[in-house]
Amino acid sequence: MTEQDIRKGLVGVVADVTAISKVNPETNSLLYRGYPVQELAATQPVDAVAHLLWHGELPTGDQLAEQRRRARPHRALPPELREAIDRMPVDAHPMDEVRTAVSVLGALDTAGAASVLEAVGTPERNRERSLRLFAVLPAVVAYGQRRRRGLEIIEPRDDLDDAANFLWMTFGEEPDPVVVDAFNRSLILYAEHSFNASTFTARVIASTLSDLYSAVVGAIGALKGPLHGGANEAVMHVFDEIGDAATVEAWLDRALAEKRKIMGFGHRVYKRGDSRVPTMKAALDALVAHYDRPDVAELYDALEREFTGRKGIYPNLDYPSGPAYNLMGFDTVTFTPLFVAARVVGWTAHIMEQYAANALIRPLSAYDGPAERHVDGYVADE
Ligand code: ACO
Q1: Average pLDDT over every residue of 234-245
Q2: How far is Cα 173 from Cα 204, in angstroms, rounded to an integer?
Q3: Is 191 touching ligand 1 by the criterion CB < 6 Å?
Q4: What is the value of ipTM here, to two decimals?
Q5: CB of 13 within 8 A of CB of 6?
Q6: Could you tell me the CA-to-CA distances from 331 to 46, 290, 294, 335 in Å, in that order?
Q7: Containing H/E element for 31?
Q8: What backbone phi and psi angles, to 5 degrees, belong to 110?
Q9: Interior angle at CA 286, CA 178 and CA 291, nearest 5
Q10: Which H, E and C letters describe 202-252, residue by residue?
Q11: Cα–ligand 1 centroid distance for 179 (angstroms)
Q12: Phi, psi values for residue 22, rounded to 5°
């Protein structure tokens, strides 16, 4: 095997086919089951997009009503999960809280617990598990933020759609439609993105015929890193560090001299701009106007102008999402768990696709450790 055969980071490797989404870096486009994501974000509630990603088609009115009827009872935290969360340190990182919550939900779902041979279960059961995870994760994230702030849990409201209910459970106030719309768009944009690191992790785990919860737990671990989903949190730390549009240039001089990665910029697949950014930037602009915070837009524009101008590296989705979530009132450490609550749709769609046409994912490695050697005193058995 030569150096050329090794695709470090799996750069450019096509690992499998998928019918769930198509990322086209040439045209800066992203299609969910054939639909441009911008069109979905502008017209659909996030649960209709979840139906599309899981089942291949947007739901009819009846199908959406039926999906909601099945999901609504699972929007509240099961008591055992509430208890498990309450036992965690209040200053645990919320990504650890969410990861553990999914693990607890897996242990509570005892169908298939008798043997590893039953871990995968039927397609119907996995569709139900996916819907339940999508329904309950907002309660985990919302309660996490309230618990950290010493506030009481807020129960879900059946009369609110998913984005509005998520905001209600977090803040306990009737959310403004401008905020609901921006939040709904962000959840749709975050819902799916082909073979990114966390989705691929989920597929690797599913390919061993492990269960859906285990695959989601692994995906959450992969998403936490700042080179992937953790970047939306990291972007906010950058905004806080810079503070003001006037100091962007000096801050960037220093950051680049220190060879720092500028969070929220760059992408493994998109090299000329992330297809999701214009839609999320428009949502951020609406929030900036709503909260009357032109300073946020000025800092956003100044850093983009300076960094992209100097390096030719464009913002990714996490760049507008970070300040948007901050304006909505979410704690910075909650941003990546918001990403989890949305991406769980894509992960579960991919896990089910993997089960449906499985091949164990097991690449090779080139060895460059010591040549064969022997333990002193070892004598081979006759
Ligand atoms: N800041 C500074 N330099 C950068 C950045 C950045 N954000 N992104 C890329 N570069 C530089 C690299 O240092 C490298 O320079 P070099 O050739 O001189 O060594 C060059 O651009 C090529 O970048 P790679 O890191 O090789 O590109 P790769 O495809 O491996 O990385 C990644 C993509 C990890 C996303 C990278 O751009 C990055 O670290 N960005 C910051 C973290 C981030 O925002 N992640 C979110 C990803 S999107 C998402 O998960 C929703």
Answers
A1: 97
A2: 41
A3: no
A4: 0.97
A5: no
A6: 22, 19, 20, 7
A7: strand 29-32
A8: -85, 0
A9: 80
A10: HHHHHHCCCCHHHHHHHHHHHHHCCCCCCHHHHHHHHHHHHCCHHHHHHHH
A11: 30
A12: -130, 120
**How far is ligand 1, taken at its centre, from the CA of residue 223, in Å?**
16
Residue whose CA is at the smallest distance from ligand 1 atom 4: 261
Please report the domains of the chain, with CATH numbers, ordered by start residue. Answer: 21-224+331-356 (1.10.580.10), 231-328 (1.10.230.10)
CB of 321 within 6 A of ligand 1: the answer is no
* Global model pTM greater than 0.95: yes
Q: What is the mean pLDDT of residues 126-135?
A: 98
Look at residue 315 and give its three-state secondary structure. Answer: strand
Q: Which atom of ligand 1 is nearest to the CA of 318?
A: 51
DSSP bridge partners of 21: 32
Taking each helix axis as running N to C, give the angle between helix 318-328 and helix 231-242, from 0 to 180 degrees, rounded to the nearest 10. Answer: 70
- Res 186 pLDDT > 90: yes
Residue 282 Cα distances to 65, 206, 272, 277, 301, angstroms: 30, 36, 19, 8, 13
